[in-house]
Amino acid sequence: MNSVHHLSRLQMNSCKTLIRATLSCLDFRAGIPSSSMRRHFQGLRIKSHSSFSISRSFGSLATAITSEISDCTEEIVAQGVDFETPQDLCKDRVGELLSKTKDDVANLMKMERRVGNGDGESNGGERRKRWFPYLDRCKAEDTYLSSIEVLEAVDPFIMDPRKEKFRNAVNNRSYSVCLVVEGLSDFGNVSAAFRSADALGIQSVHVVSFDSSRRYRDNRHVSMGAEKWLDIELWNSISECFEVLKERGYRIATTHLGVDAVSVYDVDWSCPTAIVVGNELNGISKEALELSDLHCSIPMRGMVDSFNVSVAAGLLMHHAVCDRTSRMGCHGDLAEDERQILLAEFYLRHNKNSTRIANEYSRRKLAMHSKL
User: What contacts 177, CB < 8 A, 6 or more positions away?
Assistant: First the structure.
C-alpha cells in the first residue's frame, strides 16, 4: 500500500515539474493596443495610448517565481523579484501599520493623492460632488504613469481569477461612507473593524490615535489582510480628523446612547457620512460628541446596553450599505474614471513586484520616446 502511495506522489511531482518547466520557457508580452482599440474590464472601459510592448522570457525554473501565493495559484514574473511566503501574506500587519507616522502610511498608497479637500475640482467637466482621493497618475521612476498605463503594465502578471476579484471589489467600493475609530486600545478590535469595512465595500478608514503611553494589545490574524486594500489615514486628534472630513463633505455621525441619539434605522445613509466608534471602555470622547453633526445608536432589545465596539462598527456599516442599496440601487457609486484609478491602485498594491513592473514599463516608455 505504501509503495502505491509513493508511486502516486512521484507521478504527481513529475507532472508538476513538467508543467513548471513548460511555463518557464514561455515569453510573456504586454502590448498596448493602438488608439483605435479598447481593452474592456468589467465595469470599466480602458482607452489606450501609443503602442509598445514589454517582454518577459524565462529560460529556467529559477527565474519563474510564484507571485500569487494568496490564491494558491502560480504566476511567472520577472527575474530578481521578491518572493512572498504564505506566512508573510497571512500575517496581520495592523499593529505594525498603526505604529507608523501619517506620512509612512500615506506612502503605502500608490496613486498620487489629492492635496486639500478637492472642492471646485471637476470630473469630466462636472463639479465633483463627493470626495475621491486619487489623481490619475502614479510616480514611476522619473516620470508619471496614468491609471491606464499602470493597468497595461501589470495586467499580464496577475491571474484572471485575481483580476476578476479586483474588478468586483472596485465596482462595489464607495467613499460616501467612511469609518473613524477613536482611541481603540485593542488591535483585535481595530483589525476586525478594518475587515468589516473591506468586506462591505467601505474604502476609507480613519484612526485617531490612543494615548501614546499605552500599548495596543496584539491580536494577529483578525483582519485577514484587509488593511492592505483600504485607504487608511492616521490622525493625532479628533478635531483635526473631523475638520478634514467636514471639508471633504462628510456628515459626522458618532455612536452614542444619549437621549438625543437617533436610531440608525432613521438615518438617511445616502448622504456622505463618517461613522465614528469610540474606545472600548469609555466610548466616544466628549470632544467628538460636541464636534459631531448627529448622534446615533443601535436599538438594544436585551439586558445589556451595548455591543462590542468592532461588532457595533460592523453592524453600523452593514446597515448603512443596506440603506444605500435600498435608496440608490447599489452601494458602489464610483464614476467610471474613479473605478479605473482605484483598480490601478489595487494592481499596484497586489504585491511587491507590481511597482517594479510599473517602473520597468516606465523605463521602456522613456527609452522608446527618446528614440523617436
Answer: 202, 269, 272, 273, 274, 275, 317, 320, 321, 324
**Neighbour count for residue 15 (Cβ, 10 Å):** 10
In this structure, the number of other CB atoms found within 10 A of the CB of residue 340 comes to: 24
H helix or E strand, kind and range, residue 102? helix 102-106
DSSP state letter for 293: S
Q: What is the pLDDT of residue 51?
A: 42
pLDDT digits (tens, 9 = 90+) for 326-346: 999 999 999 999 999 999 999
CB atoms inside a 10 Å sphere around CB 103? 8
Phi/psi at 9 (nearest 5 deg)? -65, -40
Q: How confident is the model at residue 356 (pLDDT cuts 50, 70, 90)?
A: very high
Q: Which residues pair with 174 in a beta bridge?
A: 202
Return the ∠ at Cα 90 (arms to 87 and 95), rounded to 5°: 105
Quote the percentage of the chain above a pLDDT of 90. 49
d(CA 208, CA 206): 7
The set of cell numbers assigned to 165 is: 476579484
* Per-residue CA distances from 233 to 12, 95, 253, 330, 355 (Å): 47, 14, 18, 26, 21
Under 8 Å between Cβ of 207 and 232:
yes
Q: Is the pLDDT of residue 71 over 60?
A: no
Cα 69 from Cα 277, distance rounded (Å) = 35
Res 269 pLDDT > 80? yes
Q: How far apart are CA 314 and CA 199, in angstroms?
A: 10
AA letter at 229: W
Q: Distance between the two ends of the chain, CA-based, in angstroms?
A: 68
